Amino acid sequence: MLDPKLVRSEPQTIAAALAVKGFTLDVDKLNEWEASRKELQDKAQSLQAERNAYAKSMGKAIGEAKAKGEDIEPLKEKGEALKLACSEAETALASVQQQLDAYLSGVPNTPDPVVPQGATEDDNVEIRRWGEPREFDFDVKDHVDLGASLGLLDFETATKITGSRFAVMKGEIARLHRALIQFMLNTHTGEHGYQEINVPYVVNSDSLYGTGQLPKFEEDLFKLTDDRDFYLIPTAEVPVTNVFRDEIIDAAQLPVKFACHTPCFRSEAGSYGKDTRGMIRQHQFEKVELVQFVRPEESTETLEQLTGHAEAILQKLGLPYRTIILCGGDLGFSSARTYDIEVWLPSQQLYREISSCSNFRDFQARRLKARWRNPETGKPELLHTLNGSGLAVGRALLAVMENYQQADGSIAIPEVLQPYMGGQTAIG
């Protein structure tokens, strides 16, 4: 959530920044709510002061009235009237504040100044490439046909078991999938300084609100149909970032760097008919997620480092990729700046997203009340949070399958994965 004080004091500045994301801030409505809030707050404070003053004098007034034989009921009635007036004023103030908070909860984060203008993914800007796409001297197969010919990747059985957009992996493909997870975790914990963490795959609505998935994106989630307000996680970002919800951590702990492998569950609402073939866009997939909590002044540089950690995995795997910065119109709800890393897929002759690395600044931390104690002031301050895929495992698998395919239908195993495959050099 944006800082409500900043939105109230500089609505036009915030509106101009949000316009880069294609979001229209209702400044008139905000000003109306703010004027009403101030009026009701003044009224509530004035009534409370009057009530407090009357309460102090009431005992004496009742005593004097009794001594004179006067009726004390009017004095009591006035006290009750002041109590009721205070309650009504506080209720009215709470109602306006609730409306304001509800509106602000649906307002996205403001983008960094470096975020390029643009409305769609076509306006994203490439900033670098690594590796050269391989030249094949035979007809390239996609991962679906490669997996089917080996009898190790089965979408029909998954559809029978559950439905569309699920997969069954067998034998050496399943082992290669597991090898990628182990390789990613070992690299991030052994070389990049992350601590491995294992978290629940089911979260409550407070956790999803904290990271920005609720209330705006509920249709993208799988909610459990019971009365416990539970959801399957769309990404490890949600449970891992919520580790420090309602916490104040010591400055000496920073930066905190977590690497987490989980399955991810997404309804893919609004994407029907898009990427339905194979493993590009599934309802269930796995990722190794990188999450960092840092001091505010360090988050910009941390995003560059975190993106580099994700890129390092692709470099070690020998997979060509490009890195782009998302334009305002393609930038996520909670993000201030995002780099997407796209891996080369020979079957499509395209780069496709395999990681998204974002700096949320204090947007998530404000919703989470995740803070650190600044030793210079001794006061709690909001953390900055960042995350990125390091990497999406299913997409890494299909990228390896397609880029390392051989003319006979076999798949060479990248050298860095061979130790995880018992020294095996090829599949098929």
From TrEMBL:
Its main location: cytoplasm. It comes from the Bacteria. Pfam families: Seryl_tRNA_N, tRNA-synt_2b. Residues 30-57 form a coiled coil. It is found in: Cytoplasm. Pathway: Aminoacyl-tRNA biosynthesis; selenocysteinyl-tRNA(Sec) biosynthesis; L-seryl-tRNA(Sec) from L-serine and tRNA(Sec): step 1/1. The keyword Transferase does not apply. Its EC number is 6.1.1.11. L-serine binds at T235, A236, E237, R266, E289, N387, S389. Gene3D superfamilies: Bira Bifunctional Protein, Domain 2 (3.30.930.10), Serine-tRNA synthetase, tRNA binding domain (1.10.287.40). ATP binds at R266, S267, E268, E353, I354, S355, S356. NCBIfam families: serS. PANTHER family: SERINE--TRNA LIGASE (PTHR43697:SF1), SERYL-TRNA SYNTHETASE (PTHR43697). Consists of two distinct domains, a catalytic core and a N-terminal extension that is involved in tRNA binding. Belongs to the class-II aminoacyl-tRNA synthetase family. Type-1 seryl-tRNA synthetase subfamily. Homodimer. The tRNA molecule binds across the dimer. This is Serine--tRNA ligase. It comes from Porticoccus litoralis. The lineage of its organism: Bacteria, Pseudomonadati, Pseudomonadota, Gammaproteobacteria, Cellvibrionales.
